[in-house]
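Review box. Two proteins, two foldings.
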Amino acid sequence: MPEAFFTLLVFQLIGTAAQAALNLPVPGPVIGMFLLAALLIWRKSRASRREAHSPLSPDSEPGTSAASPALAALSRTLIACLGLLFVPAGVGIITELPVLSANALPIAVALFGSTILGLMVTALVMHRATTGGAAPEKLPDTGGQVL
């Protein structure tokens, strides 16, 4: 498991270095997480292509993960402890309670206003996307065939 933790730290370091070098507005650990996910997806697709070319290969099992067993176990352990990571955020909210209570009305207006605005934009986009075509009852029945 130490090598899996080292892998996570290396990708966090790579992400932080990329964020600092490119002056990106995204946190470095998030960039590292996306890079690790991209690497795992690439490894899984490469393994599935190799499996398709030689299905009787003894070293590959169908449906195996691209991540090492240690990385998978560490990931499950960290996800199990994920709730603890919200404690500092909760403490931060409590310590900033005077500031939040002083600005409660603007915060509430911003939350509810952005929610209503998001719903209205979504409804407008859906309305525009669905009008102008044939009515659903007038579409030809293709017997469930898409193409």
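Next protein.
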Amino acid sequence: MDFSVVAVAREDDSPVDEPLRVARVADRLGYREVWVGEGPTWDSFVLATAIGRSTERVALTAGPVPVSVRDPLTIVRGAASCAAVTGRAVGVALGTSSKRVVEGVHGRPRVRPAAVLEESAEAVRALLPVAPGEPVVPGSAFRRRHLPPGGRLTVAAFGDRAIATAARHADRMLLDIVSPEQVRALRAKLHAAADRAGRTPPTLAAWLPAAVDPDPESLAQILRSVAGYLTVPGYSDMFTAAGFGEAVRRAATGADPEVPPEAAGVVGLVGDLEAVRARAAAYAEAGLDELALVPATAGDPGGERTLTAFATLIQAGCCG
């Protein structure tokens, strides 16, 4: 199983430049790839470029970027521009984001999200390899001047239609905050969809919150990131089955969910070194190809403690 690092995932109250610290730690420790998520604070391509200019070797993936607010050429142009400035391979990840972000932040309608994801993935897949001198888009008089960005196309998916899109167009499918049991079920769906599409299945990655020997600040940060999933269909059933039904019911009423600390271990890698080693092995056994660490940084600037611990596990041959 491969390991990568997520420099920025969800919006929180961490310092605005914390993603740069996380990326530098990941680069220094030898992780091969850094993900750069997009949200109300950071444009993912700008931040990816800043990371590329301040690190030595990590490959970069920008996104998931919300397809309802970025057209395919804008996405590919951003990746190619970042690659040109940094000299690194730059991949892109696509996602539908949420109504709260697309409509509440960007002021754009989030309609037909699954269809828009399919249309965008198909177009980005076609545009990524366009070489210099060729039209930037079919029929355009403008010619591509940058080299292709060189990275992979990733599609974030959970529902059946998004999984089918990933199977048809992506090099990699991304899950977010999932249990090993969900990995097993979603991997089966991905492989079935790839069979129907006549393609080799994309690899399967997951963003998972991580904290080794967490202090109270780190644990609280992870629990805040988990809380938003308590009312999401598919996730709520998982948390209820794991014994956190009361937190799910409270969240459904709009009350403070009061997420129990044990919930962090259901969809993440939290605990001492042996606990996270066993948890990573469970994800590998479930069929996850890549574990993308989202390190807690509260109480652990740059995720130094957690990323160092996982680097030790990787060097020791953890999880294949």
